[in-house]
Amino acid sequence: MPTTLTTTVPLAASDRCDGCGAQAYVRVTLIGGGDLLFCGHHWNRHAEALRPRAVEVFDETDRLVDVVETPEA
Fold this sequence. Notes:
Layout: E1 26-30, E2 35-38, H1 40-50, E3 54-59
Antiparallel strand pairs: 1-2, 1-3
């Protein structure tokens, strides 16, 4: 079964990585039921193994881009 990327309820700051407790940026819904939450680091580490077992992957890792503010002149 292919992985489906869909728009779902956004992850909140209170959603924590199941691996380390950091803020979660990825929610994986497994074929057999249940969800797993991952920080960017742990998702990168386990994505290849989990994608074939997922019904849905909700990925918000694009929010991890550093924003550099420049001082006003």
